[in-house]
Amino acid sequence: MQIISTAAHADTANYLAALAFAERRAFHSYFDQHVIEDERGAYTAIDEGDYDALPMTLIDRVVHTVPGRMSDEY
């Protein structure tokens, strides 16, 4: 029998929610969407276009990247 702790389940749910948000936003963006983990272990999705260049403090915390799906080419 496998037991999943409440904290682990909440972390997984938070990660999946951030990932789903990043995937939805990627359809409407030229920029990559990154899922990052903060100091508390929570996950957040950010748009690379919101920053000039990602600072090293954010790059070190990226756990998943969804490429932007908009294109100028027809």
UniProtKB/TrEMBL annotation:
Keywords: Plasmid. It comes from Sphingomonas panacis. It comes from the Bacteria. This is Uncharacterized protein.
